[in-house]
Write a structure and sequence with these properties.
Layout (H helix, E strand, L loop, with lengths): L9 H11 L5 H8 L4 H8 L5 H6 L6 H19 L7 H21 L15 H8 L9 H17 L3 H21 L3 H25 L3 H7 L8 H7 L4 H7 L6 H14 L3 H15 L10 H25 L4 H7 L6
Helix pairs in contact: 2-3, 5-16, 6-7, 6-9, 8-9, 9-10, 10-15, 13-14, 14-15, 16-17
């Protein structure tokens, strides 16, 4: 008997509901946030699902080993629950592109940035080093090899490291869209479209802040969003209030207004970045009310990534003696 798209996720969704109860709640995050020292914040983390990983770290400076280890553990768990579903691929591709960016830039700058690599992608970091050097490696997706080759050629022609980011970001969203559409993950496909629109918004505001021209912006924009790329180009030279008006009829009107007002007041895009992430999380939370299908699994994976990001924000802040109020402003909206 054929199994429906929704019912084949029934067992996994049951497990996910239990796992959601173990996500760090506001009380635990608050205790980490208000800790007086990095050691104290790390101690709070040791009382949670992260206990085994914290025990393997020498001190709070090794928090990245803990957070990366947790992401790896969760991905492996989901793969075991749903071995025929490429759900974790939707999250691993960005680590592949991140690692490729780091390795290409390290090569061109003749420096070692290995401490920035995150071995959580579909391609092991050691294999990705061959890809970055332009070598063909068995088992590496052909499109990765082509993206790396295109980035190398573009950098050779321009000597501008920004072209590496642009080409690999386009590959990232193209890959994600392909995986989501092929496997009928409609929920995530809609999130990708929002991510593209909001990424383009961020690129436009950054370009305007730097006084760059339309050609520069055009090279940074990602295809595939709902908002036409021409709208960002048309608004680049407009006044800030005209930009706010230009997005007034989009789903992101309030975000654009609040983010730009804050940017004009403080000169930083920190709040805009947070608002963008929170907007995506609001969309992800729709998965909490669904009882079947891939949505709850995707929601849990995105919840875990946001949880890990907030832990990193707190630990970086504590290690650099940043005021608690400032750290709190940077925290992203959580799933629970």
């Amino acid at each position: 008997m054929a199994v429906s798209q929704d019912s084949k996720f029934a067992y996994a969704v049951g497990r996910i509901r239990v796992l959601e109860m173990k996500l760090l709640d506001q009380a635990k995050m608050q205790r980490m946030l208000e800790a007086k020292t990095p050691e104290e914040a790390f101690h709070v983390l040791a009382e949670t699902e992260y206990a085994d990983l914290v025990a393997m770290a020498k001190d709070p400076h090794q928090f990245e080993l803990v957070t990366t280890g947790e992401i790896r553990r969760v991905y492996e768990l989901i793969r075991k629950m749903l071995p025929k579903e490429p759900l974790t691929d939707l999250f691993c591709v960005k680590y592949d592109m991140h690692n490729l960016k780091v390795l290409l830039k390290a090569e061109y700058q003749a420096k070692n940035f290995d401490h920035l690599l995150m071995d959580v992608g579909l391609v092991p970091v050691e294999l990705m080093k061959y890809v970055a050097r332009g070598e063909t490696v068995p088992g590496v997706p052909e499109r990765y090899l082509k993206a790396a080759a295109d980035a190398r050629l573009a950098f050779a022609a321009s000597q501008d490291p920004k072209v590496i980011d642009t080409i690999l970001d386009r590959e990232l969203y193209s890959s994600l869209t392909g995986i989501a559409q092929k496997n009928h993950y409609d929920f995530y496909a809609k999130i990708i479209i929002d991510q593209i629109d909001l990424s383009n918004l961020r690129s436009m505001i950054r370009a305007k802040r730097m006084g760059r021209d339309k050609e520069f912006l055009n090279e940074s924009l990602l295809p595939g969003g709902v908002i036409p790329m021409s709208q960002y180009l048309d608004l680049l030279d407009a006044e800030w209030d005209q930009i706010i008006t230009g997005f007034a009829h989009t789903a992101h009107a309030a975000l654009v207004r609040e983010g730009i007002v804050d940017f004009l007041a403080v000169g930083q895009l920190t709040l805009l970045e947070k608002l963008i992430d929170d907007k995506i999380m609001q969309q992800v939370k729709q998965a909490k009310v669904l009882s079947l299908g891939p949505e709850p699994v995707i929601g849990y994976l995105m919840a875990k990534e946001t949880e890990v990001r907030n832990i990193r924000i707190i630990m970086v802040g504590k290690l650099n003696d940043v005021a608690t109020a400032v750290i709190r402003e940077r925290l992203r909206d959580s799933y629970v």
